[in-house]
Specification:
CATH class of the largest domain: Mainly Beta
Number of domains: 2
Domain PglD N-terminal: 10-90
Structural class: alpha/beta
Strand order of the largest sheet: 6-8-11-14-17-20-22-23
Oligomer: single chain
Number of strands: 23
GO molecular function: acyltransferase activity
Largest sheet: 8 strands, mixed
CATH topology of the largest domain: UDP N-Acetylglucosamine Acyltransferase, domain 1
Distance between the termini: 49 Å
Family: Belongs to the transferase hexapeptide repeat family.
Bound molecules: coenzyme A
EC number: 2.3.1.-
Helix content: 10-25%
Protein name: Acetyltransferase EpsM
Strand content: 25-35%
């Protein structure tokens, strides 16, 4: 089994983002490299929808550590990014490397080098001078303008717009369709609600929403 999987790729996660990842791999011509999917559990319907071999739960990864197989983080997030982050860090700790995915329809300025394991999904747009940390997800149609800085594990969800020079701290989530004004700082682990318009800095761990975005009182 180990021998068969050498130099292939394994997808981690079997939900909706995994299907988006599968289609990105197909568009890149990489789908034949995929040996299967590792996920905590997958229903029969999920297995049929994904159409890739189910290899088992996370524990099966141990036998492939150090074989050269590459992982792809296909755990999505609709708010806190902690599950994507924990999985990535645990697997890195086991010695795995993660593939960097750039959909052929994504546009990336020539001076941008995405961090290891980052994913730019279909029609994402990343302009000059942007720093992209490891395990960052820039989802479908998101726009990251010039000179933004995205810390590790950030998720810029579908259709969000970061104006120039926005700084997003580690593990923050910028919700679908949100707009962040130029030069704003978003703290580590913060969650920006879908459709929010962010015009003031956001502190670490805060949840903000609305227009103009305000912090939720817990
Ligand atoms: C902001 C967010 C994290 C809050 O999630 P939650 O804690 O489960 O919040 P709830 O759904 O319980 O809603 C709590 C209240 O906030 C309001 N609310 C929730 N999300 C909101 C948003 N994005 N903008 C404005 N108000 C929002 C709800 O209407 C509700 O108001 P009420 O108490 O007056 O009824 C979530 O709604 C959100 O926007 N997540 C981002 C989703 C996303 O980006 N998906 C992308 C996948 S690619």
């Amino acid at each position: 089994m180990v021998h068969e999987l050498q130099n292939g790729q394994i997808i981690l996660g079997g939900g909706g983002h995994a299907r988006v990842v599968r289609d990105t791999l197909r568009a890149l011509g990489w789908l034949a490299r995929v040996r299967g999917v590792v996920a905590l559990s997958m229903s029969e319907a999920e297995r049929v929808a994904l159409g890739l071999p189910y290899l088992g739960a996370d524990a099966v990864l141990e036998s492939w550590a150090g074989t050269g197989i590459e992982l792809i983080n296909a755990v999505g997030s609709v708010g806190a990014t902690i599950r994507r982050r924990e999985l990535y860090e645990r697997c890195r700790g086991m010695g795995f490397g993660f593939a960097t995915l750039i959909h052929p329809s994504a546009w990336l300025a020539g001076d941008v080098e995405p961090g290891a394991g980052s994913q730019l999904m279909a029609k994402a747009l990343v302009q000059s001078g942007v720093a992209v940390g490891e395990n960052v997800l820039i989802n479908s149609g998101a726009i990251v303008e010039h000179d933004c800085r995205l810390g590790a594990h950030v998720h810029v969800a579908s259709g969000a717009v970061l104006c120039g020079g926005v700084c997003v701290g580690e593990g923050a989530h910028v919700g679908a369709g949100a707009v962040v004004r130029q030069g704003i700082g978003i703290g580590a682990g913060a969650v920006i609600g879908a459709g929010a318009v962010v015009v003031r800095n956001v502190r670490d761990g805060a949840v903000v929403m609305g227009c103009p975005a305000g912090e939720r009182v817990r």
